Amino acid sequence: MELLLVVLVVGGSAAAFRLLNAALERLVPPPPSAQRNRWKWRNIWTSLAHSLLSGAGALLAFYLHPQMAHDLIDSHLPAAHHLLGISIGYFLHDFGDMMWHQKLHQCWELLFHHSVVIVCFGFAFLVHRFVGFAMVALLVEINSVFLHLRTILRMAGLAHTTSYRLTSLVNLGTYVVFRISTLAWMTRWLVLNREQIAPATYALSTVGMAVMTPMNIVLFYRLLRNDFLTSSHCQKDK
Description:
- One of its GO terms (biological process) is membrane assembly.
- The chain crosses the membrane at residues 44-64, 131-149, 169-190, 202-224.
- Keywords: Membrane, Transmembrane, Transmembrane helix.
- By secondary structure, the protein is mainly alpha-helical.
- It is built from 9 helices and no strands.
- Helix 2 runs antiparallel to helix 7 (140-155), helix 5 (104-127) packs antiparallel against helix 9 and helix 8 packs antiparallel against helix 9 (199-237).
- The protein starts with a helix and ends with a helix.
């Protein structure tokens, strides 16, 4: 029964995202500025779809089941468990998509990130525990919506528009709230609840946080530098 659930939810999700990725060539045709990188255009739109689904789903899970916020280990709705499986399916699809279309030196950071997420989420999905903790992690996807929109605008040649500037501002704001603050809160929760967590699980979670936190801080600096610090210097030079 458990194997059937994995196949249906995780496998079905990976297949659905693969089909969506293929359909996006017609649903959202790449503009002339993105013609040379059609794969990335499809990939970003697929990632945006996942972020919208998982970010909104995680918020809804806490709204419909407030008890989960007080017990991140054992309390969750079946729908939250299924959402976790769907998210795993997406990361499996995206891992394979990057491996197929990019060279290792171009995407090793994201492949490493996806590997950690798949292992951590996969553990929670299989043992039916820490689903609430995983839902907190999926709140990060709320920021990813604006992160992907930013990339889409850049690829469409709209990096100097008001829409891009506004998206960049919202992206940085949600980055602090839903990504950096969320990861800091998760790290604090792990420390405070260490006695309730098995040593192996605690070690896995700690490694996950140790990988995610510095990666996200580095990404924040890159976004700040590219969208604001560099443009500020350019304006001063002018």
